[in-house]
Amino acid sequence: MTRKTVRVEIPAGKPDQIISLAETINRKHESLGETSPLTSINKMDVFASKLTQGKQLRDESKELKRTSEAKMEEAMVNLGLATGQTSATPDTMYNLLLQVRDLLLVTYRGNEEKLSEWGFKVVVGQAKA
């Protein structure tokens, strides 16, 4: 004879699915009122509170992430590192840094190591003649 096995999963590691499951449970519990089998759990008020707080914090975090991503893209454009930009894109940090580097290379020709005083990483090597 075969034996019945049952596994009831909780979507651990999946916050949106956890919230959805908790909302379904909470609605069912509230709709049944005093006849709910969960009334014997003394922490259903904590359950509802954690659900509300968790959902609110999750929604806030998603909005902050959207805002953060928009700000990051704005920063990348400013720096000249956004998709489609090159060192030739005018008035970006990348473009301006190249202009500064090039001017300093002219200023310190023969003593290029001085650019390290300006924060540049200078690599000096020897080429075979």
What does this structure look like?
With 129 residues, the chain is mainly α. Helix content is 53%, strand content 0%. It contains 3 helices and no strands. The protein has helices at residues 15-32, 44-79, 93-107. It is elongated, with a radius of gyration of 30 Å. The mean pLDDT is 95.
Key descriptive features of the protein:
single chain; 129 residues; mainly alpha; elongated
Would you spell out the secondary-structure blueprint of this structure?
Elements: H1 15-32, H2 44-79, H3 93-107
Helix pairs in contact: 1-2
Shape: elongated
Range of strand content: under 5%
Order of helices and strands: HHH
The residue ranges in which pLDDT falls below 50 over 5 or more consecutive positions are none
Average of pLDDT? 95
Number of strands: 0
Radius of gyration: 30 Å
Instruction: Please bin the fraction of helical residues.
Output: 40-55%
Give the end-to-end Cα distance, rounded to a whole number of Å: 87 Å
Derived from helix and strand composition plus strand pairing, the structural class reads mainly alpha
Q: For the report, how would you describe the main beta sheet? A: none
